[in-house]
Amino acid sequence: MNEQVLYRQYMETVFNYFRHFIELSREEFDAISPYFEIRKFDKRTKVLKIGETDNYFNIIMKGIARKYLMVKKKEVTIQLSTEGHMIHSELSFNLQQPSDCIIETIEPVTFLSMSYDNIQLIYQKFPKTEKLGRMIITEMFIKKDQRDFKQLNRTTRERFLEYMQNHPDMLQRVPQKYLASYLNIKPETFSRLKHLLRLRKTVPAKDN
Amino acid sequence: MQNLYEYINRFTNVTEQEFEQISRMLETVHCEKKHILTHRGQVEKYLYIIRKGLVRKFFYKNKEEMITQLAKEDDLVCSSVSFLSQQPSEYIVETLEPCSLLAISYDNLQRLYATGYHMERMGRLITLDWLLQKEAWEHERLQHDPRERFIRFMNENGDFVQRVQQKYLASYLNMKPETFSRYKHLLRN
User: Fold this and answer.
1) Largest pairwise CA distance in chain A
2) Which of A19, A68, A113, B41 could form a disulfide bond with A56, CB atoms 3.0-4.6 angstroms apart?
3) Are B26 and B102 in contact (CB under 8 A)?
4) Domain of B112?
5) Domain tally for chain B?
């Protein structure tokens, strides 16, 4: 598909996403859209390194990226994101301070990104986006809290099954060690739990 | 209400008139210790600012209480996801000391946002601050082992040792009460 068509498609996705949160006319969105930029990265590329200040808020249009911390030389994956998700270092981006985490692509990735300066400019020029910003931050907060809650409240097995049911394609797309780290499950345990998926397929799905 | 004025001005400069408007929407709540502000399954109606006292937020994992927030003077507290989404709360919010609180209802907060972009901005920046605190706490928990977590927390919140039961502090730091007791000698050095 040619680039122009793809770009229009991406913009349409974002337009519809924004309209979940606020009333926004086509003209209003057209005034905002030039502030976005398309950024492409190969697979296994570090988009943000430790110590760098994160300058971009990214929405993934294509591909998968992850965010991780280095804890005593071990990688701990704290976010796995695919098409339609947002990824950035919340702390580094918003406070404009050096990042303590790394953002790395897993597949080749296309981001629709907005720089920190442009976002501030947009809040100034289009005050309506204050509400949009608040709603997006609220959604991020809710998702994060729900993930924390599940990490504490669910058993390893429950976390595994719930995630695999909600994200059936990830097992093909993401190396197991990243999935295991994200779900806070030991790699050996993760391998063992995989047999549950095969069992599932033979059992009729329940209506809930 | 000097504290509240200072709190809000950390995020955005409000005029005297705007602050008046905010103040009119606040309710004062006094309650005893061990008072449950929000029950599990209830939709959180209020966001509280603590003027005096201590509040904890927790949930039950099987029969074990898991504390996810300990809030003191000038902190915001509520069952935040329930408040923001207006869905039933998974958490319980309970006072640990007699409390004097300022409360704003969900409906009043929406009315406040509707008065103009400036109030929206305040809302955006306060919600962002919540999100960043959550993020920072997640990194803190993952990057430091229990011993480091204990020392770092106690350096920042020394007064909690006197005010909060040890089992609650241990739960908040996600460690066993025995481990917590063992670490206490670290404070004397």
Assistant:
1) 56
2) A113
3) yes
4) 2-116
5) 1
Asked if A140 is an interface residue toward chain B (Cβ–Cβ < 8 A), one would say yes
Average pLDDT of every residue of chain A: 93
A130 contacts B117? CB cut-off 8 A:
yes
Question: Does the distance separating the beta carbons of B123 and A152 come in below 8 Å?
Answer: no
Q: Tokens standing for A178?
A: 């990243």
Distance CA A66, CA A88 (A): 10
Residue B126 lies in a domain: no
Three-state secondary structure of B81-117: HHHHHCCECCCEEEECCCEEEEEEEHHHHHHHHHCCH
Model pLDDT for residues B48-68, shown as the tens digit of each residue:
999 999 999 999 998 899 999
Residue B55 lies in a domain: yes
What does the domain layout of chain A look like in residue ranges?
A: 3-127
CATH number of A3-127: 2.60.120.10
CB-CB under 8 Å, A145 with B134? yes
Tell me if B57 is assigned to some domain. Answer: yes
Asked if A146 reaches chain B (Cβ–Cβ under 8 Å), the answer is yes
B132 at interface of A, judged by CB pairs closer than 8 A: yes
CATH number for the domain including B62?
Answer: 2.60.120.10
User: B61-89, pLDDT tens digit by residue?
Assistant: 988 999 999 999 989 999 999 999 999 99
Give the residue from B161, B133, B153, B20 showing the smallest Cα distance to B76: B133
Facing A69 at nearest CB: one of B59, B120, B143: B143
- In this complex, do B139 and A101 lie within 8 Å of one another by their Cβ atoms? yes
- Interface test with chain A among B128, B129, B141, B147, by most A beta carbons within 10 Å: B128
- Three-class SS state of A194: coil
